[in-house]
Amino acid sequence: MTKLKTLLKVLGPGLLFASMAIGTSHLVLSTKAGAQYGWVMVIPIILANLFKYPFFEFGIRYTTVTEKTLVEGYLNLGKKYLWIYAFVTLISTFTILAALYVVTAGLFMNLFGISGMSVSMIALCLFLLISLLLIIGKYQFLEDSLKAVISILFVALLITTVMVLQKGVVPGSESYQRPEIFNETGILFLIGLMGWMPTAVEASGWVSLWSIENLKTMKNKPSLGLALQEFNVGYFLTALLAVFFMIIGWMTLYGTGTELSGSAVVFADQVVSLFTVHIGNWAYILIAVAAFTTMFSTCMTAHDAVSRVSIDVLEKLFPTQKAFKGKNTFAVTVILMALVNWVVIDRFSANMANLVALATFVSFVFAPLLGWMNLKTVVGKDVPEPYRPKLGLKILTYLGIVFLSLFALYYCWEIIV
Q1: Which residues of 159-195 are buried (b: 16+ CB within 10 A; e: fewer)?
Q2: Are 151 and 294 in contact (CB under 8 A)?
């Protein structure tokens, strides 16, 4: 009981990771995977979560042991590695946030029947609200609020999944033929699913920064074992919810021939409708609120993370610049991120797909290198031998690097050819 209470006290980075990851990759991609290809898609979902685990775990490990951010670890490897991470972060800064806010704004309009306002204006309202919450509430508010959000989402999804399983598979159309997985279209879908499952590898730096903030709120520094337990809870929850979404898609849509929207916003609305079919129309507003809250919390965690990591990268690249170390730096950065990404939405909405494709390309291409950089930080001189990853985790890391490399090479091949 004492260990459980201690674990609950240090809950933070792992839950923030879960909240950030359980966005479009789960709500859209996992559900669509089950709906299009059936139960077999549980295999790539589990493999992606398994092979990527070490890269995110190293962010917690390095920070807990050294009380330094993973960004500083990259700098210790050599400034060129920090510049690589800075480049990936820059691309994410001007694309990922804009894409998340567009989906969330569109979902809000669809679910609650909002008309008379553009997606751009709804996104602006979301930017302003989330910026205020992050600036006023800071890390502690983010952590406390997301504990409630994740708990509610887990219970709602668990109930829905159980009800779906009890009803059994929806009768499919006799003429339905499952799409090929190992043709060009299927493999590109797999790349998207596994590439963003549970999230992009560069988010390991975000987890590290949340770990630093969590340490600041605690009187006594947690042991490495306890910090990893906390992260493992969040990571396991992330993987489990991905499987839940996949099961819901499989049991309710697979084989029916239902046309699935290519728009993340419209598809998310279809998913909410699936929930109400199995729970009842009375639950629509509850499920709609849960779906919107899921995306809202993803926006909030990503906005916080991108702001923090941008500041940390600039501090390390330009240590003599006092502008990056001021008292109000975080608030200014949060607002700047909101304004820049709103401009992207407002001015480049027609090219949003191209911008997201650019972010996807950069993320996939650099993922193996970032994974290798994470490994080098936790086996370097900063981390004492007893705290370095054991042989089994190292083997899993190398397998993960090979896994990411093969995906990156194939993705590049498809893009170039």
Answers
A1: ebbebbeeeeebeeeeeeeeeebeeeeebebbbbbbb
A2: no
CATH code of the domain covering residue 271: 1.20.1740.10
Q: Of 9, 6, 30, 23, which is closest to residue 305 (Cα–Cα)?
A: 23
- What does the chain come to in residues? 417
Token pair in block for residue 75: 């700098």
Residues 194 and 407: beta-carbon distance below 8 Å: yes
Whether residue 406 lies inside any domain: the answer is yes
SS3 state at 114: coil
pTM for the model: 0.89
**Does residue 20 fall inside a structural domain?**
no
By the 8 A CB rule, do 8 and 280 touch? no
Q: Taking Cα atoms as reference points, which of 51, 108, 89, 132 lies closest to residue 403? A: 51
Structural domain including 226 reads: 25-416
pLDDT tens, residue by residue, 217-250? 776 777 898 889 989 988 998 999 999 889 888 8
CB 234 within 8 A of CB 334: no
Do the beta carbons of residue 312 and residue 209 sit within 8 Å?
yes
Q: What is the number of domains present in the chain?
A: 1
Residue whose C-alpha is closest to residue 345's, from 38, 103, 133 = 103
Domain membership flag for residue 59: yes
pLDDT in tens, 362-390: 888 899 999 999 999 999 999 999 999 99
Q: Which residue has the tokens 């502008």?
A: 323
List Cα–Cα distances, 92 to 85, 305, 361, 409, in angstroms: 11, 11, 11, 20
Q: Within a domain: residue 308?
A: yes
390 Cα distance to chain centroid: 26
